[in-house]
Design goal:
The structure holds three protein chains of three kinds.
Chain A: H1 14-22, H2 25-33, E1 38-40, H3 49-68, H4 78-87, H5 92-120, H6 128-150, H7 155-166, H8 175-183, H9 190-219, E2 237-239, H10 240-265, H11 295-303, H12 312-325, H13 330-333, H14 345-366, H15 371-398, H16 414-420
Antiparallel strand pairs in A: 1-2
Helix pairs in contact in A: 3-5, 3-9, 4-5, 5-6, 5-10, 6-7, 6-9, 11-12, 11-14, 11-15, 14-15
Chain B: H1 2-29, H2 36-40, H3 60-72, H4 95-103, E1 109-112, E2 119-122, H5 137-143, H6 162-171, H7 178-183, E3 194-195, E4 203-204, H8 227-242, H9 246-275, E5 282-285, H10 290-303
Antiparallel strand pairs in B: 1-2, 3-4
Chain C: E1 3-6, H1 13-47, H2 53-57, E2 61-64, E3 73-78, E4 81-87, H3 90-97, H4 110-113, E5 121-125, E6 148-151, E7 158-160, E8 165-167, E9 179-181, E10 186-189
Antiparallel strand pairs in C: 2-10, 3-4, 4-5, 6-7, 7-8, 9-10
Classes of the chains: A mainly alpha, B mainly alpha, C alpha+beta.
Chain lengths: 436, 307, 190
C-alpha cells in the first residue's frame, strides 16, 4: 500500500487469477492483512489488542444474532425469554454467558488498546483520524452496550435505562422533550424496549463499518511502533503474514483462555445480582449501578454535588460527555514532536497518574455514593480534566525528552545516539538530530 | 483553541473542587447519622455445597431433599415459575415419578373450561411450569400483609451472597437485640415483620419458615432434618433451580480451557518458530550494550558528573 | 571497543533439515488447533436452532376419547398441529374394507392405519397432504365429501372413511402419527 517494498499480490493458480481479474478482493485482503502489508518489526504485545477487539466484536455479533433467534422483545416476555434461552435452548446457556461476558471483555480489550494509544502517541500526526474514528467506535460501543443491558429487562436494566435517559432532562428546555422522544413514553416501557432491540441489532454493524474505516485510515501511514520513530526502509518492517498473524493468533488463544475461565467458571462475577430480578417500575434497587465499564463516567457524573451557576445535575452530565469529547482534541493538546512515551520521562509519570486516576474513578463509580467515595471522585475527576486540558499541553511544550534512535532497526544501537548527543539537546521531529 | 480547552478544563476542575470542599465541610459539620443497618446487618455465614468450585457437581440426594422442603413448606407462598415439572428428571426422578409429582401437585394449573369458557383449573402435566400459589400479585400481597413473596427460581443468583445468603436468612431469625432498640428506636421491628440481621433492612416480612427439627420427614438413608440441615438442603435445591446447567457448564468449561491451553502452547511455539530468524538480528555489546549504558549512567550520576 | 555481534541466522545446515520439518509441524499443529476450534464453535451455533427442551417436552399429548360416540369425531392439537380423532361406525369400517387397494393412489388398508382390536378409532393429522389446509368433516353438518370421509375445500381433495385420498390433487393419505392407547379412554399421541 504505502510502502514501496510491500510485496505485490501475485495469484498463481488459475482460479485465483480468474477471481483477481474480476473482483480484487483477495488482493485487497493480501495487501491489508496478508503478506503484502509491511508492519514495523518491533511491535510489542500492547499492539495485539486492536485485533483482539476485532475478535470480540465478531464474537458478539455471532452470539448476538443467534440469541436474537430466541429473544422476545416484550416487556412481559423479555425476562422469561432470556431464562428460556438459559434453560431450554440447546447450548443457550453458553451462548448467553459468552455474549454477556463478551461485552465485558470487548471493553477490557478496548481500554487497553486506548491506553496503548495514549502512551505511545498513536494519536499524533499523521494518525489523528485513526484516533478520532477509534473514539467514534468507542462511543458506538457504549451506546450498544447500554441498550444491550436493557434487553433482559431485569431491575438494573430498567433502572439503568431510567437513570441514563434521565440525563437528558438535565438540559434546560429541550431536555425533557428529548428524553420522552428517546423513550417513546414517559418511562422505559414497551416502546423503549423494542427500539433498543432494533438499534442494538443495528449498531454493531455500524461499528464494523467504522472499524473498516479505522483500519483503512491506519494502513495509509501504516502502524506506529514502540519507539515512535517512522519506518525508513525495508529493514524496519516484516510482512503482516505470517509474522503478526502468528503473534496475534497465539495471543488470541491465550486471551480466549482467560475469557473461557470467566464464561464457564465465574459467568456472573462481572454482573450484578439485581438483574436476575424482573424489572419493577415501582421498586428501586438499593444501589443503581451501571456495568463496570461505565463506572469511571458514573463517578464523574456523581462528583458534581453543588449548584454553581448551573445545577449540579447538569454539570455532571456535561462533564461526563466532555470527558470523552476532550479526547478528540488530544492530537492538538499534546504538541510534543516525540511520539512515544518511552522517550518522554515526565509524560510517562503523568501517564501513570492518569491510569491510577481512571482506576480510582472506576472503583468509586461502582461504590455507593457515600461522602468518602464522592470526595475521592471529586478529586480524581478534577485531576482527569486537569491532566488532559492543563497538564498535557504544558508538559509537551516544556519537557526534556530522551534522544530517539535513528530508526527502528537501529534502535538496538540506542546507546550510540545518547553518547553522541550533547546534554540538554532534544531531538526535533523525526529525531534525526546528529551531533556535530 | 488550546486556551479554550484549557479554560474548559480549569472550569470543570474548579467546580469539582468547590463540590469537594462543600462535601468535606458538610461531612465535618453535620456527618450523616449512623444507621441501624450499617451496624447490625450481618454478612452471610459460610456455606459449602457440592456444587461449589470449578468442578462442582450437584448432590442429587441433597437437592431431592431440598425439593421436598420446597414442596412441603415454601410452595405455599412462593412460586417457581421458570422451572417445569419435567426438569425434575435432572434430580434423578424417572418419567413416571415426575408425572405423579405433577399430577399430585396441590396447586392446579389455570385453564379454561372447554364447554362453558369459564376460568377453571386442571391437574398439572410434566410439560407445565410450576403453578403459582396465587392467581396474581394482588392476591399474593393480600394474603401476606402487603408483602410479595418473591419467585424462587432465580433467588440464589438474584441476591448478593447467593446460596449462603438464603441459608443464613433461613437460620438467622432471632430476637431483636435490646442494644439496637436503644440506639435506633425507629428501627424497632414493626408489627407483622420479623427481625433477621441477614436481611439488608433487618426487618423481614416472611415469618420463620423452618421452625423446628423434623418439620419435614426425610426418607431413610438421609441425614436428620434439623433446621440447619433443611436450610442447607433447600439452599442447595435453589442453586439448581437458578442454574440447572451448572454441571454441564463446568464440564464443558474444563474441556474448553484445556483445548485453549493446548492451542496457546502450540500457537506460541509456532510464533517463536516463525520469528526465529527475525528476532535479535543485531545485538549491541560492550559500551553500546544498553545494560552497560545503564550502569555507566548511574555511576556517572553517583559521581556527580554531568551529561 | 564497541562491537556488534550478528546473531546466527537460523541453525547450522546439518540441523536445518530436521529443524524445517519440526518447524512445519509446529505451524501445522497450531493452524489445525485453530481449525478444530472453529468447528467446535460451529456445532453449538448450529444445534441451538433445534427445538428447545420445553418444545420437546410437549412432543406427546394425551387425549381423553371417552366422550366420542361412534360416528363422531373431534379436532385436537398435537405439536401445534390439528389432529382428527374419529370413532368409526361399523358401516364406515365395512365401506373402508370394501375398497380394492388397486383403486387407491396411496394403497393402505384400514387395518394398517389403526391399532389391532381398535379398528374403529381412526386418528390422523388434520392436514391435507396437498398443500396443508385443514379438511372439513369432523364437525356436525360439515361437508364430508363424495367418499363420506373428509373433504378439503381448498383444492377439492376428497378422503374416504379411512381418511385415504380418493379424488383431487393430494398425493398421500392423511398422516397417521405414532400413538398408543394408555387406557380404553385415553390415547397418547407422539
Amino acid at each position: 500500500m504505502s510502502f514501496a517494498w510491500a510485496k505485490q499480490y501475485e495469484p498463481k493458480a488459475p482460479l485465483t487469477r480468474w477471481l483477481d481479474e474480476r473482483l480484487p478482493l483477495p488482493r485487497l485482503v493480501y495487501g491489508a492483512i496478508g503478506g503484502g502489508y509491511p508492519v514495523p518489526r518491533n511491535l510489542n504485545y500492547w499492539w495485539n489488542f486492536g485485533v483482539l477487539a476485532g475478535l470480540f466484536l465478531t464474537i458478539q455479533i455471532v452470539t448476538g444474532i443467534v440469541l436474537a433467534m430466541w429473544y422476545y422483545a416484550s416487556a412481559d416476555g423479555a425476562f422469561n425469554s432470556v431464562e428460556h434461552i438459559m434453560r431450554d435452548v440447546n447450548a443457550g446457556w453458553a451462548l448467553r454467558y459468552i455474549h454477556m461476558n463478551g461485552a465485558s471483555f470487548f471493553f477490557i480489550v478496548t481500554y487497553i488498546h486506548i491506553f496503548r494509544g495514549l502512551f505511545y502517541g498513536s494519536y499524533k500526526a499523521p494518525r489523528e483520524l485513526v484516533w478520532m474514528l477509534g473514539l467514534v467506535i468507542y462511543l458506538l460501543m457504549m451506546a450498544t452496550a447500554f441498550m444491550g443491558y436493557v434487553l433482559p429487562w431485569g431491575q438494573m436494566s430498567y433502572w439503568g435505562a431510567q437513570v441514563i435517559t434521565g440525563f437528558f432532562s438535565a438540559f434546560p428546555l429541550v431536555g425533557e422533550p428529548i428524553r420522552v422522544w428517546l423513550l417513546g413514553g414517559y418511562a422505559p416501557d414497551q416502546a423503549a424496549l423494542t427500539r433498543f432491540f432494533s438499534l442494538h441489532y443495528l449498531l454493531p454493524f455500524v461499528i464494523a463499518a467504522v472499524v473498516i474505516l479505522h483500519i483503512w485510515a491506519l494502513h495509509i501511514p501504516g502502524s506506529s511502533n514502540p519507539t515512535g520513530v517512522d519506518v525508513k526502509d525495508e529493514k524496519d518492517t516484516l510482512p503482516f503474514h505470517p509474522f503478526y498473524t502468528a503473534k496475534d493468533g497465539w495471543a488470541a488463544a491465550a486471551f480466549l483462555t482467560v475469557f473461557a475461565l470467566f464464561v464457564y467458571f465465574a459467568p456472573n462475577y462481572l454482573g450484578h445480582p439485581d438483574n436476575y430480578i424482573p424489572a419493577n417500575p415501582l421498586a428501586t434497587p438499593a444501589h443503581i449501578v451501571p456495568e463496570w465499564y461505565f463506572w469511571p463516567f458514573y463517578a464523574i457524573l456523581r462528583a458534581f454535588t453543588v449548584d454553581f451557576i448551573l445545577p449540579a445535575k447538569l454539570w455532571g452530565v456535561l462533564a461526563m460527555f466532555s470527558s470523552i469529547l476532550i479526547l478528540f482534541f488530544l492530537p492538538w493538546l499534546d504538541t510534543s514532536p516525540v511520539r512515544s512515551g518511552s522517550y518522554r520521562p515526565v509524560f510517562k509519570r503523568f501517564f501513570l497518574l492518569l491510569v491510577l486516576d481512571v482506576l480510582i474513578l472506576g472503583f468509586c463509580g461502582g461504590a455507593p455514593a457515600t461522602p468518602l467515595y464522592v470526595a475521592i471522585s471529586q478529586l480524581a475527576a478534577a485531576y482527569y480534566f486537569a491532566h488532559f486540558l492543563i497538564m498535557l499541553p504544558l508538559v509537551s511544550a516544556f519537557e526534556r525528552t530522551l534522544p530517539l534512535p535513528d530508526s527502528i532497526s537501529s534502535s538496538a544501537l540506542h546507546g550510540e545516539k545518547k553518547e553522541a548527543a550533547p546534554a540538554g539537546i532534544t531531538p526535533r521531529r523525526g529525531a534525526t538530530a546528529i551531533a556535530e | 483553541m488550546r486556551y479554550i480547552l484549557g479554560l474548559v478544563g480549569a472550569v470543570f476542575s474548579v467546580v469539582l473542587l468547590i463540590s469537594f470542599f462543600s462535601n468535606v465541610s458538610t461531612y465535618l459539620t453535620s456527618p450523616p447519622p449512623a444507621t441501624a443497618e450499617e451496624e447490625f446487618h450481618l454478612h452471610p455465614k459460610h456455606l459449602s455445597l457440592a456444587s461449589d468450585g470449578p468442578f462442582g457437581k450437584f448432590d442429587k440426594k441433597q437437592i431431592q431433599r431440598g425439593f421436598q422442603i420446597y414442596k412441603e413448606v415454601c410452595s405455599a407462598c412462593h412460586s417457581m415459575n421458570l422451572v417445569a415439572f419435567h426438569d425434575l428428571e435432572a434430580l434423578g426422578y424417572n418419567e413416571a415419578e415426575v408425572k405423579a409429582i405433577a399430577n399430585q401437585w396441590q396447586t392446579e394449573v389455570p385453564t379454561v373450561n372447554p364447554e362453558t369458557g369459564e376460568a377453571s383449573t386442571r391437574k398439572a402435566l410434566p410439560s407445565d411450569r410450576f403453578p403459582s400459589p396465587y392467581a396474581n400479585e394482588t392476591a399474593a400481597r393480600a394474603a401476606n400483609n402487603n408483602a410479595l413473596p418473591p419467585d424462587l427460581s432465580l433467588i440464589t443468583k438474584a441476591r448478593e451472597g447467593g446460596a449462603a445468603y438464603v441459608y443464613s436468612l433461613l437460620t438467622g431469625y432471632r430476637q431483636q437485640p435490646a442494644e439496637l432498640i436503644q440506639k435506633f428506636p425507629a428501627s424497632k421491628t414493626p408489627q407483622g415483620l420479623h427481625y433477621n440481621p441477614y436481611f439488608a433492612n433487618l426487618n423481614l416480612a416472611m415469618p420463620q419458615p423452618l421452625t423446628s427439627d423434623g418439620q419435614v420427614t426425610y426418607a431413610p438413608g438421609n441425614p436428620k432434618p434439623t433446621v440447619d440441615q433443611m436450610a442447607k438442603d433447600v439452599a442447595a435445591f435453589l442453586v439448581w433451580t437458578a442454574e440447572p446447567k451448572l454441571e454441564k457448564r463446568h464440564g464443558t468449561g474444563l474441556a474448553v480451557v484445556v483445548f485453549l491451553l493446548f492451542a496457546t502452547v502450540f500457537g506460541y511455539l509456532a510464533y517463536r518458530n516463525i520469528w526465529y530468524g527475525e528476532k535479535a538480528v543485531v545485538r549491541a555489546t560492550g559500551v553500546l550494550d544498553p545494560k552497560n549504558q545503564a550502569k555507566a549512567r548511574s555511576a556517572k550520576r553517583k559521581a556527580g558528573v554531568k551529561g | 571497543m564497541a562491537t556488534l555481534e550478528q546473531s546466527a541466522q537460523g541453525s547450522d545446515p546439518a540441523e536445518s533439515e530436521g529443524g524445517a520439518r519440526r518447524r512445519d509441524f509446529l505451524n501445522v499443529a497450531a493452524v489445525s488447533f485453530a481449525g478444530m476450534g472453529v468447528v467446535a464453535v460451529a456445532l453449538p451455533l448450529i444445534s441451538q436452532m433445534n427445538p428447545p427442551a420445553d418444545v420437546l417436552a410437549m412432543a406427546s399429548t394425551e387425549v381423553d376419547i371417552s366422550k366420542i360416540a361412534p360416528g363422531q369425531a373431534i379436532k385436537t392439537v398435537w405439536r401445534k398441529q390439528p389432529v382428527f380423532i374419529r370413532n368409526l361406525t361399523p358401516a364406515e369400517i365395512q365401506a373402508a374394507n370394501a375398497v380394492p387397494l388397486s383403486e387407491l393412489r396411496d394403497p393402505q388398508t384400514l387395518a394398517e392405519r389403526t391399532k389391532p382390536g381398535k379398528a374403529n378409532w381412526l386418528i390422523t393429522l388434520g392436514v391435507c397432504t396437498h398443500l396443508g389446509c385443514v379438511p372439513l368433516g369432523t364437525g356436525e353438518g360439515e361437508n364430508r365429501g363424495p367418499f363420506g370421509g373428509y373433504f378439503c375445500p381448498c383444492h377439492g381433495s376428497a378422503y374416504d372413511t379411512a381418511a385415504r385420498i380418493r379424488q383431487g390433487p393430494a398425493p398421500k393419505n392423511l398422516f397417521v402419527p405414532d400413538y398408543e392407547f394408555v387406557s380404553d379412554t385415553t390415547v397418547r399421541i407422539g
